[in-house]
Amino acid sequence: MSQPLIVGNWKMNGSLAANVELVQAVVAGLPRVTARAAVCVPTPYLAQVQALVAGSALCLGAQDVSVQQSGAYTGEVSADMLREFGVRYCIVGHSERRQYHRESEVEVALKAKRALSAGITPIVCVGESLAQRQAGETEAVVKRQLAAVIHENGHCISEIVVAYEPVWAIGTGQTATPDQAQQVHAVLRSQIRAATAHPERVALLYGGSMNAANADELLAQPDVDGGLIGGAALKAADFLTILRAASR
Ligand code: PGA
User: Fold this and answer.
1) Which of 188, 238, 242 is nearest to 215 (CA)?
2) Measuring CA to CA, how many Å separate 45 from each of 81, 203, 245, 247?
């Protein structure tokens, strides 16, 4: 892995006024960190945040993309449209979309493909529910989710980012222990190794209540290359603390 990567997932949060304050504060703190940084913002704010990050090292990201290229798909946003706004990363298959929008593994894989073909790096989310963890199915679930994306994207798989987000840890304040995170990351790493000649290009992010207090020990794990941050990405000071932890 090259530089660690810290990505904020704003989810459905923000306002024109709040975004200015948040992005300006993050950008102001960036010269003191070496980790790569991005924020995945709600679609209506892409143009605003594109302008706010211009000239800085903070990259712009989106939270979803259509499986379709263009046409009669009311409400959908295409990868080419995202690209026009300078989008560099796009989250695909977040558990909230798998759950509330019934996104299937095949759809997630196709979304990753659309992003890649537009020159956007998909951040593919995988993760088990609490019931699946308790049933001892964690490895099988994350491997199956990632396998669908590998199957659809072939040699391009070296161009994706993978985020391990245990569903029971998202927005709950309950974090995977560093050991639990490392265990799953090691499984994902070996799956990536088997799928590409350039596994070192694929960053493995941990997500699920990563915050300013626990980032250090999670990021210290050998197979944790960064984080996908929800709640803590909405506070500039916390997001910068995580970025600094990733820069050590
Ligand atoms: P959280 O969200 O940090 O608020 O748990 C992470 C995510 O869902 O990407």
Assistant:
1) 242
2) 13, 26, 28, 28
Say if ligand 1 is within 6 A of residue 171 CB.
yes
165 lines ligand 1 (CB under 6 A): yes
Q: How far apart are CA 226 and CA 27, in angstroms?
A: 18
Q: How far is the CA of 4 from the centre of ligand 1 (A)?
A: 18
The answer, yes or no, to whether any atom of ligand 1 lies below 6 A from the CB of 229, is yes
The answer to whether 94 is a known catalytic residue is yes
pTM, entire model:
0.97
165 is catalytic: yes
5-246 belongs to which homologous superfamily? Aldolase class I (3.20.20.70)
**Residue 92 CA, ligand 1 centroid: distance in Å:** 14
For residues 109 and 149, give the distance between their C-alpha atoms in angstroms, rounded to a whole number: 4
The string of pLDDT tens digits covering residues 173-224 is: 888 999 999 999 999 999 999 999 999 999 999 999 999 999 999 999 999 9
